[in-house]
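Possible regression after last week's pipeline update?

I re-ran a chain I had predicted before the update to compare outputs. Posting the input and the new output here so someone can diff against the archived version. Not blocking, just want to make sure nothing changed silently.
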Amino acid sequence: MDFIKEMLAFERWLCTNYLPPLSQLLWHKLFMLCNGAGWPEWIVVENASLMAQLHLKRTASFLEYRDKLIECGLVEYQKGRKGHPNRYRLHSVIGFQVESQNGNSFKLKAQTVPQTVPQTVPQTPKHGNCHRP
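New output (post-update):
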């Protein structure tokens, strides 16, 4: 993964999609863990470690924020078992578009663009601000 391109794509995605602040922070923490590990397909990390990084005490709160990332298609999760922590796979945000599901949740979907159509670069807001709901 290209660190800068992924980070910018995630920030652009946030300009048009709502994600709770602690879910955003969790994505950043997972992103940095993947980067530090050399971008393996999956990373293994315990809930307690991620909860400490987010300063969360309640497991239910952590699971709620993690599930938002999963619902959006930003992260894939495999439940661990005793002695084997959970596994996470980050999905690239580059080249994806948002597809509405069930009217109020969103999932990332691979974007297919015909090769003959010229690609345009989205315009960034003048002062870097985004409209958020």
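Follow-up from reviewer: compared with the archived run. The CA atoms of residues 95 and 112 lie 8 Å apart. Marking as no regression found.
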